[in-house]
Amino acid sequence: MEQYLTVKNFSKLTGVTVRTLQYYDEQDVLKPHHKSDVGYRFYSKNEMLILQKINILKYIGFNLNQIKTVLKDNKFDWLSSLNLQAKILQESIKKMQDSVMLINHSITWYKADKGEPNWEVMAKILEVLKMKQDSAYQDWIKRNFTDADLAFFGEMTATQNNEENAALWKKIFADAKSLMYLPPSDPQVQELARIVMNSANSQYEGNEGLKGKMWNLMKSGDIPEGFIPGYEKEIVLFLNQAIGIMFNSQK
Asked: What crossing angle do the helices spanning 187-203 and 208-220 adopt, rounded to 10°?
């Protein structure tokens, strides 16, 4: 004859509170095996197995309504659901990693005896991190940049006039496009090449690696649409030829 457990004993055995078990019953997630005439709940081994499923599903992030569906629907699409849950958890991990990055930035700032973190810089870093979550940029950023690169971008955004920078590069590209009928060695093009190098050196001061990485991405055409105002791959290749000639003439 099967032994049944009272709700208190079932609670002690499973580590789930009596109130939670009552709530599961009320929400039709986990019903007791039966109730006595006066309403006492009794549980069997079968409810123990169901509770194990509930605990596992909760742990991997399913909410109670989803769990209810899983338990009641024999045709539940497990594969799609688990893939979706894995994606959600991966996004959570990314957000936690980004949070760690912000914390580390604060620690570095504090260790440099600068006192309270620079909240403006932190806010700009957060803007760059949020950009990572945009579907248009996410894969591109993940493929090309490190967390240190993103932190540098954030500080650039906080410490430089971004509207002026955007306007400057838009004018550079427009001017270069209007001069593409000339050879890259032409004095007008060479002057523009010097402006490009001075602007890049000013914006990426102290980070030659990231400056080179961005220029190579621009040369390859691997730039999301709208990321750099006025950008066109052909213009960058033209400017790159001019910069090469400029450097060779300085040797």
From this structure: 130
CA 72 – CA 51 distance, rounded (Å): 14
Contact 141, 128 (CB under 8 A): no
C-alpha span between 154 and 109 (Å, rounded):
14
pLDDT single digits (tens) 116-175: 666 666 666 666 556 555 555 667 777 888 878 877 776 776 667 766 877 888 899 999
Q: Which residue has the tokens 């306007």?
A: 167
Q: Check if the beta carbon of residue 146 is closer than 8 Å to that of residue 132.
A: no
Distance CA 161, CA 163 (A): 6
Q: Report if pTM > 0.70.
A: no
Q: Which residue has the tokens 């690696």?
A: 209
